[in-house]
Amino acid sequence: MKATPAVRPLDDLLVIDLSRALAGPYCTMMLADLGARIIKVETPERGDDTRGWGPPFYDGESAYFLSINRNKQSLTLNLKDPRGRDLILRLLRGADILVENFRPGTMDRLGLGYAALHAMLPRLVYCSISRRTSAWIPRRSPFTRDRPSSGSRRWRSRA
């Protein structure tokens, strides 16, 4: 008897992943686990920040990077270069979802902000995961300042 491949709920979705580090890659990992095709875009200079996170390392690669980016395809693009921007726009024309976690304003400066992309691609779901909103936008966002302002230090100490 021949086995029928399982159909996963997101098998028909294409997600362009411009995120790095924690929240964005975790989000797209879950989408990939549910069947979405993920194309992760990394910078040509160094790739994703987490490629060097460790230990542990597996065959010289960050175990964290490998686990959080499983089931994803990847490519490198310089989004500041017009050729890179043109290529990402071509990819987005066939995509269902864009996930990014740059600092607020970065995507706008690249010409890839919500308003610009919505005007070109109104059906694209634009997911922006940011640690800073409203009056907090201008402030840099190290973990040491985020934890007290979010109250996470209090609930973490109760564990």
Key descriptive features of the protein:
about 160 residues; alpha/beta; Rossmann fold; 5-stranded parallel sheet; two-stranded antiparallel ribbon; about 15% strand
Quick overview:
The chain has helices spanning 23-33, 63-68, 82-93, 106-109, 114-120, 143-150, 152-156; strands at residues 14-17, 37-42, 57-58, 61-62, 72-76, 97-100, 125-128. The protein has 159 residues and is an alpha/beta fold. The model has no long low-confidence stretch (mean pLDDT 87).
Report on this structure:
- It is a single chain.
- With 159 residues, the protein is α/β, with parallel strands linked by helices.
- The chain has a domain at 15-83 and 94-131: Rossmann fold (3-Layer(aba) Sandwich), CATH 3.40.50.10540.
- The chain has seven helices and seven strands.
- It has helices spanning 23-33, 63-68, 82-93, 106-109, 114-120, 143-150, 152-156; strands at residues 14-17, 37-42, 57-58, 61-62, 72-76, 97-100, 125-128.
- The protein has a five-stranded parallel sheet with strand order 5-2-1-6-7, with helices on both faces.
- Helix 1 (23-33) links the parallel strand 1 and strand 2.
- The longest helix is centred in the middle third of the chain and has 12 residues, at 82-93.
- The chain is globular.
- The mean pLDDT is 87.
- It holds the Pfam family CoA_transf_3.
- Keywords: Transferase.
- Residues 140-159 are annotated as: Disordered.
- This is CoA transferase.
- GO terms for molecular function: CoA-transferase activity.
